[in-house]
Amino acid sequence: MLDEPIIQRLKEIVGAENIATETQDLICNSYDATQMEFLPDAVVYPGNAEEISRVLKLANGERIPVFPRGAGSGFSGGALPKGGGIVLVTTRLNRILRIDQENLLAEVEPGVVTEHFQQEVEKLGLFYPPDPASLKFSTLGGNVSENAGGPRAVKYGVTRDFVMGLEVVLPTGEIIRTGGETYKGVVGYDLTRLLVGSEGTLGVVTKIIFKLLPYPEAKKTMLTTFDSIDGAARAVSTIIGNKIIPTTLEFMDHATLQCVDRRFNLGLPAEARAVLLIEVDGDRELIEKQAAKIHEVIKPLGLVEFKVAKDAAESEALWKVRRLVSPSLRDVNPDKYNEDIVVPRSKVPDVIRRIEQIQQKYDIPIVNFGHAGDGNIHVNIMIDKAVPGMEEKAHGAIADVFRAALDLGGTMSGEHGVGLSKQPFIPLELSPAQIATMQAIKKALDPNNILNPGKMFPV
Amino acid sequence: MLDEPIIQRLKEIVGAENIATETQDLICNSYDATQMEFLPDAVVYPGNAEEISRVLKLANGERIPVFPRGAGSGFSGGALPKGGGIVLVTTRLNRILRIDQENLLAEVEPGVVTEHFQQEVEKLGLFYPPDPASLKFSTLGGNVSENAGGPRAVKYGVTRDFVMGLEVVLPTGEIIRTGGETYKGVVGYDLTRLLVGSEGTLGVVTKIIFKLLPYPEAKKTMLTTFDSIDGAARAVSTIIGNKIIPTTLEFMDHATLQCVDRRFNLGLPAEARAVLLIEVDGDRELIEKQAAKIHEVIKPLGLVEFKVAKDAAESEALWKVRRLVSPSLRDVNPDKYNEDIVVPRSKVPDVIRRIEQIQQKYDIPIVNFGHAGDGNIHVNIMIDKAVPGMEEKAHGAIADVFRAALDLGGTMSGEHGVGLSKQPFIPLELSPAQIATMQAIKKALDPNNILNPGKMFPV
Ranges for the FAD-binding PCMH-type domain (chains A, B) (predicted)? Predict the structure, then answer.
């Protein structure tokens, strides 16, 4: 609970109409895409960096935890106010400040929705590649804080690779700039990339300078079906080994295909055990040549079917298979734990085999799909929480999935972050010295531990 | 001066044959590519991370400054032992530990010479793009610590974009891993990229995992000559605006061309005021098309001559113009200050005009060339130190050049780093709050300030 005088001071900072303390408003800001919920004491909607600075200075003086929040679409509880405090929502900072066509960059506020930004730059023939699945509602500030990825990361990289500079309010309320408008720049420590992916624990991003690219001339989509996981996995290495870096290399395992087929009747071949949705983009003639080459080199790998889209409508039809995955999963079981492990590309078949064993051990359905080009697999553990004991089984399975990824030289998360959901598992991946180093940085920037406290590190 | 017992303990750690205290050895490690010199008290050549850890623990206990050093080819004094202490040379850690062709990555030790690494991966059809001018002698550890760039950064990015993970000895002697073998990974803070470009002030890199690419199928080199700086600068934006991102876009101004021509008689057209050396790489047919397109779109911009290489020998001949720049400069004056400012691409003509004014103001020759695609211009202030007052003029000109770059939205350094040489100018670029944030991080990781102290920040 916040005292009335504190609420009063917050009202003075952000305006009475930009603070909420009624239960219904608190509930709206108590959850994200995980199944966790924590009620804040108050929600503030500041309008600019100066107001955010003043909120943080007040919070620092009074030792009140502050939890930055974008659209609340995160998959790891990174924005949830566990323990209570102030949720600081950045959605009013939602302007695209400028798009510089000559220097291929844009400056935006953190509350801009990802897809809206993409549409605006595309109108000018430009391209912002990062495409997290949540792009229709997630904010760019959230994308930066979580270092969001997406299918196009194989060729273009993740959010980090497009952030040139930031304006940030530090936990102490200081407003600083990091990086700048040039891609090269080596003066001082790389605070920009320290902040990207720091999950709102080191600062509140108030401006972002993004690098842009020219929009690719054309793209070509292929749906390729294999009679084994190994075939699909070898296809990934074979394509890249032939000097083709596709834009996307999306993978769906047998369980995923069964899910989608059961509900939407895809008419996939009976031998289908894995599907790769492949897209290439760039010069119109080059992608024709690449598509033909891809067909040629993957043919010997147990290829059952090769569909190539002739136009945008056919491309959309092929993507439908991938987009139907999420709505189909709930048919297996109503509740889902969605983890996003990563392994070195060549280890994808091994990790899928390990997950099959985990599935048998715990006797719960696990469905795998994701970004095979990066080795980034979304592992969906499907349970029914109403069934006694099933949630505990899921927790055991999740720990085993993380151990499998780490055993194979991978990581627990490629896109979703640690937040609250992976916090208990951190010691599996990071050594005490690594954790101590990160905590020392946190303490250096947030001496009173008021910004998104209790996240990421073991508590 | 180090006491004899300290020398004795260092000998026990690295072996008596791997420590040097004789004046001639100290002199060899007292300088770099700047014109500064500082004698260390001792030089150690450890053989592995464990020995480095023990050296740092000893140094911490005794509060002895330690200065990590690769090949000593840096351009900012980053490895120089100002104030004395121990120079820690990493050249004995010079193994390429593995090249993983399936996952397109390599693990190396920091003492591997950049060009040697490139040659080894190229034998396997792979590609490590970063190409600092010093690549024939610089080490990969130095490249990582300075975040080295090079001509190919336009298309491929800088060293930072290829570092996936590190093994680092922290100033306290702790050995940690950062990042890993997967390109995606969001567990914990991005210590990898905090360390890249930290100029040896936060840790000693002992292993590096690099991302690799498939080696491009072909490349095409063009030497394009313009009748004005503006024409050449507009050519850069026009090419990129036409969806072509060349591998390199190297720029030489009129003063540079005169220098080279005077010595090597290039036979450039009389109207030549600027040259762009352009290279594209990739699919054989695509680059033919791109070269034709480049010719078409830059023709209206005051193009005086367009030479395109038909084969590798002709390509080498065109590159010769660029390579002759450095040896030609000394004809202007014997001493050189080489700064590497960056401005947004569109501001290249403005900054060149400002530099012309600075040249007139101080009446000293300034020669500009560099990476126009990134807006990264190497500004060479040519003086004769024997002439009284000329060095002071150079210092004034350098400060003005930095101010011009910053006024235009740029940075003082795109590749060389701060080290000692840009330290006095840091407050021009970074705010007190930015500096305080960086110093807090330094203090968190190096509480006794023993690792490369007195660098980067104002002292």
Answer: 36-215
